[in-house]
Write a structure and sequence with these properties.
- This protein is of the alpha/beta class.
- It folds into two domains: 26-181, Ferritin (Up-down Bundle), CATH 1.20.1260.30; 199-503, Vaccinia Virus protein VP39 (Rossmann fold, 3-Layer(aba) Sandwich), CATH 3.40.50.
- Helices cover 43% and strands 12% of the residues.
- The protein has 18 helices and 13 strands.
- The strands form three sheets. A nine-stranded mixed beta sheet has the order 3-2-1-4-5-7-6-10-13. Strands 8-9 form a two-stranded antiparallel sheet. Strands 11-12 form a two-stranded antiparallel ribbon.
- The longest helix is centred in the last third of the chain and has 38 residues, at 515-552.
Length: 553
């Protein structure tokens, strides 16, 4: 065999090298920088160090952009802002109101990103960052007690902090790149997955993938009213709810945001995340446990959406055996899933609708009274829709999950919708099941993503089933994907809510080939493929041995 032929043969069996990425994402760039500089700092601590700096960089970029805009205005003789002298121009540039009116945080002189960038090589960079965080909090009351201020710790070396400042000062991370970008949301999602893996947390706290939040918001349609998330994490649900309202012609003030988060550092991240976007949110006076220290006991929300921790066993349920929230059955001490559902129902308005992400076990479990609670929820006609999602959607867990939609109003009364006034059909004693487990594509070796078409298919099916006005096709059951079932039918399945039980199997077009012949044909094709692969491997190894013998001679 000639050398060129050998190379062609080897290329068929050799592992293919991945092509270099043309451009790394912002998240990947930041992660590589952070991981490279982390040294021996604990991942849980380092996460907040990095995110705090990203926040500082972002607000500095926004401040600088507004300052540049004002500079152009005061220099332009045709502008209402035009100022003839340097002193007059400086008075505008240093006027806090000119920034606050645009939702921009005031950055005190001497504590802006450029000041830190110039001092990145100094041994006191940690103290300088702490001073900047402290000064920003003092100048912006809504941030007080929120920003991290422990950068002067000995384990955070000047080389580490200076390296991070230098990395975040790169030109491709300039302010213009952040326009309209949910920086903390995207970076938090990416970093939390990476750091949680490093911490060994495979099912606890994690950020909900943006596509899943988008699906929940698109299905729930929170156009106006109170929006509540009792396990709000970094606030991603609120960010996308606000984006949804504005995308459909509404105003940010059309919704009121309420939330709660029990992790103090995550609560601070949520405060920062929402502050970046000018979203006024009531997250309680401080962090707190929703079950034991409800920050909004009198709240009744029109929309509730959340992704609480799955299957939590240490939620303190033994101290809440007689809690008035458990109207549909006392949740087991060893699992908080149905405690979350009933906590949300206690905060739902008389016409409200809620959606929550839960582990699939919640659909069928009969343990410790969970089956009885599920039965009661179905029988009183609170359950409206169940969506089974694909596996591998989350960075930190492979647990398959589902969406529960519950509502107190299936009457079909007129309401505000995408096309203005809308009338839904009455849906009493009906539940929609959607089996979306086969949707999505593998974005990486371990993570799946849902495409825009996937999300639209699920959301449009839900809206069509509810009978909303618009250009949607009339609802029909689709074998293998969706089915509308009566409560009597669900009772016949012992109140198990697994969508696969109701949607059946997808209809496969008959190609005319008998099943036994098809199996025999496919079996033979597979066997032939294995034989060809073995022959090629033997030929390649023999050629390599021949080359080796020639070289030794």
């Amino acid at each position: 065999m000639c050398f060129r032929s050998l190379i062609r043969e080897l290329e068929l069996v050799a592992p293919r090298q991945k092509k270099p990425e043309a451009e790394k994402s912002l998240e990947a760039t930041l992660w590589e920088a952070a991981d490279r500089l982390r040294s021996r700092v604990d991942a849980a601590e380092y996460k907040h160090v990095v995110l705090g700096l990203i926040f500082l960089k972002y607000v500095s970029d926004v401040f600088a952009k507004r300052r540049e805009q004002l500079q152009r205005l005061v220099d332009n003789p045709g502008s209402d802002y035009f100022m003839p002298t340097d002193a007059a121009k400086a008075s505008v540039l240093e006027n806090r109101d000119e920034y606050a009116s645009e939702g921009v945080f005031w950055m005190p002189e001497g504590h802006r990103w450029d000041d830190l960038r110039k001092a990145a090589k100094q041994t006191d960079i940690g103290e300088r960052i702490d001073a900047a965080m402290d000064a920003i909090e003092k100048e912006n009351p809504s941030l007080r007690g929120v920003l991290p201020k422990r950068y002067a710790r000995r384990e955070l070396t000047p080389a580490m902090l200076g390296g991070l400042v230098d990395t975040f000062s790169r030109k491709d991370l300039a302010g213009e790149e952040h326009k309209g970008l949910d920086v903390l949301g995207r970076v938090y999602e990416y970093f939390l997955g990476k750091f949680a893996t490093a911490e060994g947390k495979l099912g606890g706290e994690f950020y909900t993938p943006r596509s899943i939040v988008g699906l929940m918001v698109e299905m729930l349609e929170p156009y106006d009213g109170r929006v509540f998330d009792p396990a709000c994490g970094s606030g991603g649900m609120f960010v996308q709810a606000e984006e949804f309202v504005e995308a459909h012609g509404g105003r940010r003030s059309d919704i009121s945001v309420f939330g709660q988060e029990q992790n103090p550092t995550t609560w601070r991240l949520a405060k920062m995340n929402l502050a970046l976007r000018g979203i006024e949110a009531n997250l309680g006076p401080e962090w707190g446990d929703s079950f034991h220290h409800d920050a909004h006991p009198d709240l009744r929300a029109a929309f509730i959406l959340t992704n609480p921790p799955f299957n939590v066993s240490d939620w303190g349920g033994e101290r809440l055996r007689d809690d008035p929230r458990w109207k549909y059955g006392t949740p087991p001490v060893g699992n908080a899933n149905f405690a979350w559902i009933q906590h949300m129902l206690a905060h739902l308005s008389p016409t409200g609708t809620m959606v929550t992400v839960l582990a699939n076990g919640s659909l069928s479990s009969q343990q410790s009274g969970e089956g009885e609670i599920r039965r009661n929820l179905v029988d009183v006609d609170l359950v409206e829709c169940i969506v089974a999602l694909p596996s591998q959607l989350f960075y930190t867990t492979q647990i398959p999950v589902c969406l529960w939609f519950l509502t107190r109003d299936k009457s079909g009364k007129s309401r505000t919708s995408r096309s203005g006034a809308s009338t839904r059909r009455p849906r009493f004693n009906e539940v929609l099941f959607i089996d979306a487990r086969t949707l999505g594509h593998m974005a990486t070796r371990i993570n799946r993503e849902l495409s825009a078409d996937d999300l639209a298919r699920i959301a449009d099916t839900y809206h069509a089933w509810r009978g909303e006005d618009g250009d949607l096709k009339p609802y029909d059951d689709v074998p293998g994907f969706c089915a509308s079932a009566t409560i009597d039918t669900i009772r016949g399945h012992h109140h198990v809510l697994t969508p696969g039980r109701y949607v059946g199997s997808e209809v496969v077009e008959d190609d005319g080939e008998p099943l036994d012949k098809k199996i025999a044909r496919l079996t033979q094709e597979i066997r032939d493929g294995f034989t060809k692969r073995t022959e090629l491997q033997t030929k390649a190894l023999a050629a390599l041995d021949s080359l080796k013998a020639t070289d030794n001679a």
